[in-house]
Design goal:
This protein is 28% helix and 25% strand. The chain is α+β, with helices and mostly antiparallel strands. The chain folds into 2 domains: 270 residues, no CATH class; 112 residues, 2-Layer Sandwich (Alpha-Beta Plaits), CATH 3.30.70. It has a 10-stranded mixed β-sheet, with helices on both faces. Strands 5, 14, 15, 16, 17 and 18 form a 6-stranded antiparallel β-sheet that branches.
Length: 455
């Protein structure tokens, strides 16, 4: 058993810094590179891609990335774990094997974790009494059955641990929890008992800190962000993990960024509900027990994490076709920019009503005034506002209503308030709305599968 391992975050979402994984494997010593590519909406996008082409459905950045980092990872014996397999981890793994073959890399072992995609099992589950009730509304999914676009179970660390025990150099998964990517190598390397819920929670907390990439090393930092060095080459976080469950969060010395008490504390409270009940497939972590110690030199110790047994359920992330939407915008200039924009919005709404168009929702934002804080925006002297962007969005099951809305933006230029600009790119056009459906499923109804592919 090793006395410590270094786990580096390489991506916080699909679309994150392309250079970050390369910097992580070349700027210092690490044992694992973990990359989180998935979000709820990402799964539906990937499912659509797979429906159009059965060879797609994964993060297409991965093969190109491995062209750069695979020889380095093999030389340094860095293992890579990612959920970038999306809804097609097998195709993703085959694409990476093709890259390895072109690079004349031999002896490569890629483990593929599948079983999370239950889209084809929905009817069977419903027949057996599992109606995937919405976690927020309690509704059954049955009325939405024909609109479902994707359905994926959040697996935890366990199948990744199995993959590592099979000797995998790279682990490609589908919808695995963000935290499970980091927890798994700790379980594997330190031979942790998965019923030791304090250790499971310690690894889960480390995963939560790493999951959003540079957000824990100074990116998007709401504190003294001007003190963050070298944003242009910001270092992503590294978890230096120890067998007793203590973790030190740090970064490579040659890269920018900032790791201190504040940056880590801020990330810890990001996207959590009840801090005493951070629920994952592996455990329920109690964030109120976490202790942080700033060691200086971009090193923060995380320790004393407590937890308890996981629930008997997996979370399921479903998406369904929720109609159509369109967004249009115009910009009004001083003087009285806000007054003009508000009046233009009033005119537009009256015209849409006169046309008898149907919308589930019409939402207006005045960018430069209330687009960030909404109703909390304070009244200000309109003469202090140089310009305002009027942005109006509509949503409806009725395609024709949304399409006609797009034709009502440009006429405001010559039939509404003066001093208007910012209309470019043609009329707003309807796009499909992908709606989110969270649910729970008994763990005994689904199970992950791990397959090893070798070159």
């Amino acid at each position: 058993m090793r006395d410590k391992i270094r786990i580096a975050s390489g991506q916080g979402f699909w679309g994150d810094m392309i250079e970050a994984p390369y910097w992580q494997v070349t700027s210092g010593e690490i044992d694992y590179l973990v990359m989180d590519y998935l979000a709820e909406v990402t799964m539906s996008i990937l499912q659509k891609q797979k429906n159009m082409n059965p060879e797609l459905g994964y993060a297409k950045d991965l093969p190109r990335l491995f062209e750069r980092i695979l020889p380095i990872c093999m030389q340094k014996k860095i293992k890579v774990i990612t959920n970038g397999g999306g809804v097609n981890p097998v195709a993703c793994s085959e694409a990476i094997l093709n890259v390895a073959s072109k690079l004349n890399v031999s002896g490569l072992k890629i483990a593929v974790v599948t079983g999370d995609n239950i889209l084809d099992q929905i009817d069977e589950l419903i027949e057996n009494g599992c109606e995937l009730h919405n976690m927020e509304t309690g509704e059954s999914i049955i009325p939405y059955r024909d609109k479902i676009l994707s359905a994926n179970v959040y697996f935890g660390a366990a199948p990744i641990v199995d993959a590592l025990r099979m000797g995998a150099d790279i682990v490609i998964t589908g919808r695995t929890t963000d935290t499970g990517l980091t927890l798994a190598p700790m379980i594997y390397e330190f031979n942790w008992d998965m019923n030791d819920y304090d250790k499971m929670s310690a690894g889960t907390v480390a995963g939560h800190i790493l999951e959003c990439g540079a957000q824990s090393t100074g990116g998007n930092f709401s504190g003294d962000w001007k003190s963050v060095e070298n944003f242009a080459k910001i270092g992503f976080p590294i978890a230096e993990a120890y067998p007793d469950g203590e973790v030190i969060i740090t970064k490579h010395k040659g890269l920018g960024g900032l790791v201190n008490f504040d940056t880590i504390a801020e990330q810890l409270v990001y996207e959590i509900g009840d801090p005493a009940k951070y629920i994952t497939p592996d455990c329920i972590a109690d964030f109120t027990t976490i202790k942080l110690e700033d060691l200086g030199n971009n090193r923060v110790k995380v320790y004393n994490v407590k937890g308890r047994e996981a629930t008997g359920f997996y979370k399921v992330s479903c998406s369904y076709a929720g109609g159509y939407s369109a967004v249009g915008s115009l910009t009004y200039s001083w003087p009285e920019a806000l007054t003009k924009a508000k009046y233009a919005d009033k005119i537009l709404r009256e015209r849409l009503n006169q046309l008898g168009l149907y919308f589930d929702e019409i939402r207006t934002e005045f960018v430069g005034y209330n687009s960030c804080h909404g109703d909390l925006s304070k009244n200000i002297d309109e003469n202090d506002i140089n310009e305002i962007m009027l942005r109006v969005a509509v949503r409806s099951d009725n395609y024709k209503s949304v399409e006609r809305f797009g034709r009502e933006i440009a006429p405001l230029i010559l039939t509404g308030p003066p001093s208007v600009t910012g209309f470019a790119g043609g009329r707003p056009r309807p796009s499909e709305v992908v709606a989110y459906w969270p649910a729970l499923i008994n763990k005994n109804l689904v199970s992950p599968k791990v397959e090893l592919m070798e070159l």
